[in-house]
Amino acid sequence: MSKVNTAPIKWAQRSDSLYITIALPDVKEESIKLADETLKFAGKSEGKEYEVDIVFFKPVDAEGSTYKVLPRSVQMHVMKSKKDEDEEFWPRLLKDKALEKNQVKIDWDRYVDEDEEEEGFDTSALEGGMGMGGMGGMADMMGGMGGMGGGMGGMDMGSIADMLKNMGGGMGGAAGAPGGNPFAGAGGAGGNLFAGGMPNMGGPGMADAMKKAQEAMNNPKVRAVMAKAQQNPKVMKAVQESMGNPMAMAKYMNDPDVGPILRELQEAMM
Question: What is the pLDDT of residue 220?
Fold first, then answer.
C-alpha cells in the first residue's frame, strides 16, 4: 500500500471569505469534498498520493464556494458562513491549533491586515471553476452512481440504461431515434451488468441516486445533450470518468470539446 502524504495548504482571508491553496502541481484523480465545517481532499501529484482532512475554525458556506484545479495548485474561494453575523477575521484557519502549525501556512501574496481590507479577493484564476456544495444535479446523480456500495464508477452509459429499464424506467428505443434512448449503446455496452441483482447497493442512498438518474434520463433536454455527446468518443469518455468521480469534471470544463457538453448537461438538469 502506497504512502499517503499530507498536502501543504496556504490560506488568506477577507471578512467574508477564505482563499485556500493546496500547493501541489499537476494534480490528477482529485476528489474534493467541502462541507460547512470540513474540507477533504485526495489526489495524485508527481506520482505521489496526497490528502487533506481538516475542520475549519468556524463554519463556512459550502454552497457558495468554488474551486479550480490549476497547473501549479488547486485553488479554492470559500465563503464564510452567512449565519455568522459577525463578519470578522479568524485567528486561524483550523479548529485544531496544533494541526495548523504543522500543515498550514499564510499565503502572503494574498494577505491583508484586517485594518487594511479594502476589497475582496481577485478570483479571476477561478473563472470556469466548479461549485463545491454538491455541484448540483449532474454531479449528484453521477456521484451517487459512482460511490454506491459495490461501486459503479467506470460503467458505460448503456449499462446504466439497461439498469434503469430493469427498474421500470421504460427507456426503450434506439439511440438517436425520435423519442428513443440516447444512452442505449453508448460506450459499447454488452448486456446488463446487473442481471441477477446488485450486491451491496441497498439503502436510501442508492434509491435516491437511482431516482435522480431516472429523472435525468427521462428529461428531454438531457437526452438531447447526451445524443450530441454520443457523436464524440472523447466526450463520452469524459462523462464516464465524471460518473466515477464527479470532481473529475473540473479538469474538463475548459476543454473545447467536453466543457460545452458538461455545461449543457448541468443547465439541462437544473
Answer: 80
Average pLDDT over residues 239-243: 71
Contact 246, 146 (CB under 8 A): yes
Nearest in space to 109 (alpha carbons), one of 10, 22, 27, 17: 10
In the sheet that holds 130-131, the strands lie side by side as: 104-106, 9-13, 17-22, 74-80, 60-69, 130-131
> Which cell numbers in the block locate residue 243?
460518473
Looking up cell 460511490, which residue turns up?
147
pTM of the predicted model as reported, rounded to 2 decimal places = 0.51
Predicted confidence at residue 126, as pLDDT, reads 81
Give the distance between the most distant pair of CA atoms in the chain. Answer: 66
Rg of the Cα atoms in the chain: 21
Name the percent of the chain in helix, strand, coil, to the closest 5.
35, 25, 45
Question: Which residues are bridge partners to 104 per DSSP?
Answer: 9
